[in-house]
């Protein structure tokens, strides 16, 4: 069943044959982008789950079609059938699930290389997002579930002017070259802290009843990264400061210790998922101190250990 988008949100314009840029700001690199997971499809990819229904045409393999004759990373790609043109009246999808505590907190970036050759204004691909493990979905272009709490950036995503069958916004037409699309969530942790696989991106491909003998959609080199947002003050020596929090997740109290030589007082800062400082401890003069959560709500937080105008260490804290 196709996801129906609220029609008051959709404005229909003429579709360009190449992808239009999204209305959102471009990807913000902040203090640097760190890559943590990838799928190039030469080996099994645990991040991708293909739909198992009979109508699904997404396959992983070597492209052998007129327009799709080579993967970005040879030999394999994720493609709407490795041999045949896409059929009429088709709806196929695959899911990308990637939230893992050890890797992700703030500033998640999902990137992928792709090509498409479809019937303009009718056939093509779009991306839905779910924050509750697939119970509810919304087109990522119109996702306001957490956008009002964070900075949401994209690069080469489709726009409101790019429409498919049924008025759904998505990629359509022909991309002559490989396109690199990225989606970035800043200062928010979009996963349920008790279900770290709750964030899902669903990549849909749809077609109407007209046979055009075109190749469809091909995706390769999926890359999961995060941006080091830093703060308003300078980062310094953060990679050399090892911070231990015990226990973590935290019920009421935790012991925080670190290996940095203390020369002068330090400051502990706790930042919530929308970038607001919710707790500060000044005058830390030893390599170990105690953290009391008091009335802070459950969630994922970022702690910073600061010295004067520098950040000397960061760590994630989960309050349960």
What does the secondary structure layout of this molecule look like, with pairings?
Layout: E1 33-39, E2 48-50, E3 58-61, E4 77-80, E5 91-97, E6 108-117, E7 124-130, E8 138-139, E9 151-155, E10 179-186, E11 200-206, E12 216-227, E13 234-235, E14 243-246, E15 253-258, E16 266-271, E17 277-284, E18 288-292, E19 299-307, E20 310-319
Structure description:
This protein is mainly beta. The chain has two domains: about 5-225, Jelly Rolls; about 235-320, Immunoglobulin-like. Helices cover about 0% and strands about 40% of the residues. It is built from no helices and 20 strands. The strands form four sheets. Strands 1, 3, 4, 6, 9, 10 and 12 form a seven-stranded antiparallel β-sheet that branches. A five-stranded antiparallel β-sheet has the order 2-5-11-7-8, with no helix packed on it. The model is unreliable at about 1-20, about 190-195 and about 230-240 (pLDDT under 50).
């Amino acid at each position: 069943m196709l996801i129906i988008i609220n029609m008051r949100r959709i404005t229909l314009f003429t579709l360009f044959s190449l992808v239009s840029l999204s209305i959102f700001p471009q990807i913000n690199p902040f203090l640097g982008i760190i890559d943590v997971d990838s799928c190039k499809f030469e080996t099994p990819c645990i991040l991708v789950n293909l739909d198992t229904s009979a109508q699904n045409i997404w396959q992983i393999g070597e492209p052998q079609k007129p327009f799709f004759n080579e993967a970005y990373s040879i030999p394999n790609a994720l493609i709407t059938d490795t041999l045949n043109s896409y059929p009429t009246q088709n709806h196929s999808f695959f899911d990308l699930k990637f939230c893992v505590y050890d890797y992700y907190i703030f500033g998640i970036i999902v990137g992928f290389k792709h090509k498409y050759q479809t019937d303009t204004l009718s056939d093509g691909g779009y991306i839905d997002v779910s924050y509750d493990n697939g119970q509810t979905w919304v087109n990522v272009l119109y996702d306001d579930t957490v956008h009002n709490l964070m900075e949401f950036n994209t690069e080469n995503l489709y726009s409101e002017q790019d429409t498919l069958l049924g008025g759904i916004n998505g990629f359509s037409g022909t991309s002559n070259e490989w396109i690199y699309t990225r989606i970035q969530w800043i200062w928010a942790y979009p996963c349920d802290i008790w279900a770290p696989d709750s964030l899902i991106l669903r990549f849909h491909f749809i077609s109407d009843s007209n046979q055009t003998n075109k190749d469809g959609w091909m995706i390769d080199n999926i890359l999961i990264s995060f941006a080091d947002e830093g703060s308003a003050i300078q980062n310094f020596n953060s990679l050399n400061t090892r911070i231990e929090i015990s226990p973590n997740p935290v019920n009421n109290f935790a012991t925080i210790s670190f290996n940095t030589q203390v020369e002068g007082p330090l400051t502990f800062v706790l930042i919530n998922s929308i970038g607001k400082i919710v707790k500060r401890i000044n005058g830390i003069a030893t390599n170990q101190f105690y953290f009391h959560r008091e009335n802070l709500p459950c969630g994922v937080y970022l702690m910073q250990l600061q010295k004067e105008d520098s950040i000397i260490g960061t760590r994630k804290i989960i309050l349960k």
